[in-house]
Amino acid sequence: MNSFDEYTIARFWSKVDVGDISACWPWKGADSKRGYGRFKINGKAESPHRIAYEIVNGKIPPLDSQYHGFVVRHMCHTPGCCNPHHLQLGTQHDNVNDRKDRTGKASIVDAPDWLGIAVEPQPFCSKLDTAKVLKILRDPRTYREIAADYGISTTYVSALKNGQRWKHLHDAIHKESPTHD
Ligand SMILES: [Zn+2]
């Protein structure tokens, strides 16, 4: 699933203080004393936690305006930690909102060979948050335009507009009185 060769993966984990599954795994390679640290790959310096995430979960989706850029978040709030269990894909917005809307149940997947442990990926559940859903509900454009703008399917836009998803917001919008600000 990942795009790294075995050598790179072995080189990477040799620089991580791999510990118990619940513990933080500090980066002990370059710049480990400063922030996230640095791992050189194909001549480029990368953040070790992003590489740890990609080794386990595959490539982080590219930055684009639609998603405003993905970040790999530390659920443990330890900047140098490379334990994939502590890493989750999110957006800058999520970083602010932290883990407000994490209802998805993670599933256990087979361990990659490099560790011999079961890995519980943190699912990236939702591209939407309350503010975005409210905007979509008030958005007069066609479903197709809205879907393209938010990176969701037209079916999902329809489900939002019909109150089949995020029902509480749908109901709230439709209860809004004209005098309400
Ligand atoms: Zn950690």
Descriptive notes:
This protein has 181 residues and is of the alpha+beta class. It folds into two domains: 92 residues, no CATH class; 46 residues. Helices cover 32% and strands 9% of the residues. It contains seven helices and four strands, in the order αββαββααααα. The strands form two sheets. Strands 1-2 form a two-stranded antiparallel ribbon. Helix 5 packs across helix 6. It is elongated and about 55 Å long. The chain starts with 5 loop residues before the first helix and ends in a 6-residue tail after the last helix. 21% of the residues are buried. About 17% of the residues have low confidence. Bound molecules: zinc ion (ZN).
State the gist of this model.
Helix content is 32%, strand content 9%. The chain has helices at residues 6-13, 48-57, 92-97, 130-138, 143-150, 154-161, 167-175; strands spanning 39-41, 44-46, 70-74, 87-91. The protein folds into 2 domains: 6-97, no CATH class; 130-175.
